[in-house]
Known about the structure:
It is built from 11 helices and 10 strands. It starts with 25 loop residues before the first helix and ends in a 5-residue tail after the last helix. By secondary structure, it is of the alpha/beta class. The protein is 37% helix and 21% strand. It folds into 2 domains: 1-114 and 206-287, Rossmann fold, CATH 3.40.50; 123-203, no CATH class. Helix 4 crosses helix 6 and helix 7 runs parallel beside helix 8 (218-231). Residues 1-3, 6, 48, 51, 53, 71, 73-79 line the site of adenosine-5'-triphosphate (ATP). The site of adenosine-5'-triphosphate has 15 residues, from strand 2 and helix 2.
Amino acid sequence: MALESSEPSEPNESNESTDPTEPSDPIETTQQRTDNPLLQTENLVKRFGQFTATDRIDLTIERGEFRSVIGPNGAGKTTLFNLITGALPVTEGAIYFDGADITTLSPSARVRRGIGRSFQISNVFGGLTVRENVRLAIQSVARDEYTAVESLFKPTDRYDELNDRTEAILDRIGLAHVAAEQANALAYGDKRRLEIGVVLATDPELVLFDEPTAGMSVEETRETIDLLEAVLVDQTLLLIEHDIELVMELSDRITVLNGGQILAEGTPAEIAANQDVQNAYLGGMTE
Ligand SMILES: Nc1ncnc2c1ncn2[C@@H]1O[C@H](COP(=O)(O)OP(=O)(O)OP(=O)(O)O)[C@@H](O)[C@H]1O
C-alpha cells in the first residue's frame, strides 16, 4: 500500500474527549445524527494537490454489516480507509461514527471510540510474548476507562481485570496454549491469529481490513477469512479484498469504487449483475 508510507498530518488532538459526557466536546453535543448507522461518510473528498483520490464519497455502513470495498488499482480504496481511520486528514466532507462527527479526531481517539484497523505483522512486537502483545493492545485503549483516582487506589483490581481480558482474548483467538511464546516464534497461521487478537484487544465495533490476505496462498486466504468470521462475530467489518470470489461469498453488501467515486453499491448478486461494474471492473481489469 503506497499510502501507508505517506506521512499523515495529525488531525487536531484537541477535539478528543476522554469523558463522553464532557460538555466541552462540541462535536458530540452539536452534530448528532438522527438515523442510526454505525459509520457514515458524507461528501468525502481527498485531494493530493490537483489529484482527487476520493471524490464525494457517501458511504453508509449498518451495524453488524460485512461490507467489502472493491475496485481497480488506484480506485481510492486505501485512501478511503485512511480517511476513516484518521491516518489522512479529509479535504472536504464529514465522517460520522456511532452518531458523532469524528472528522477531525486523531487516529488514536478513533480507536478509543471503537474503530479498529487490521495490523500487519509489523505492528505485532516480535520480541514480546503473545500475551504481552495482547495485553499491550488492551492497555493502549484501557487508560480511558479508569480515572486517575481509580488507578491510584485500585491498582490490583485493575491489574486483575486487564489480565482477565487478556486471557479471554487469548482464548478467543485460540492462542492460550502459546501465550508465553515470543510472537516472532509463532507459526504462520498463529501469527495471523495474533494480529486479529491485537485488533480485538482494542474492543472495536468496526474493524477495517485492508487486504488481509495479500500474498497468501488460496489455502491461507481461506483459513484467514474463516478465522475473521469466527472471531469477529460481534463486529461490523469493512474489507478491502482483491479476491472477488471471496468478496462475493462473504459480503452482505459491496461498494465498488472507480476513479475515486462510488460506481455501484449493492448485494453480491446485484453487483455481479451490474453492467457498469462489469464494464469498469469485473471485465477487463486486472488486479
Ligand atoms: N500520498 C499521496 N500523494 C499523491 N497521490 C496519492 C497519495 N496516496 C495515494 N495517491 C493516489 O491516489 C489514488 C488512489 O490510491 P489508493 O491507494 O487509495 O488506491 P487503491 O484503490 O487502494 O489502489 P490499490 O488497489 O492499488 O491499493 C492513486 O492514484 C494513488 O496514486
